[in-house]
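Aim 2 progress update. The chain analyzed this quarter is reproduced below.
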Amino acid sequence: MSVETYSPGIDPAKTISVTEAAARHFESQLARSGHRGVRITLKESGCSGYMYDISEVDEASDGDVTLPLYNGVEVYLDPLHAAALRGTEVDYTQDGLNQNLRFNNPNATDACGCGESFNINLTVSPADANEE
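Predicted structure tokens:
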């Protein structure tokens, strides 16, 4: 079964970018799990407001914005969070034994001390992003 998604007014290429290192990381994780893509959303959490929620999925949810990567991996974005993710670069870094996905989000402000949550500086709330 195939799901085609359409999100008027939302260009996935202008929403987020994924570095080659992050694309390879997603590809490796999906090869192990057998899933087809990665879904990125935001959820309310922590002391600063939001955190990234990443899940491995087999297909896009209804209305998701789809970003196909060069290696066949697809990244799905909840259209409700497109404005909050606009301009975000997803990177994968390794420093010794530490491996991390990093989200360089120009809209993120007021990160909490532990680095798990952040606030968003937008004139459009994540819930209203699909009305742009």
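Residues 1-8, 124-132 have pLDDT under 50 and may be disordered. The chain has one domain: 12-122. These observations will guide the mutagenesis experiments scheduled for the next reporting period.
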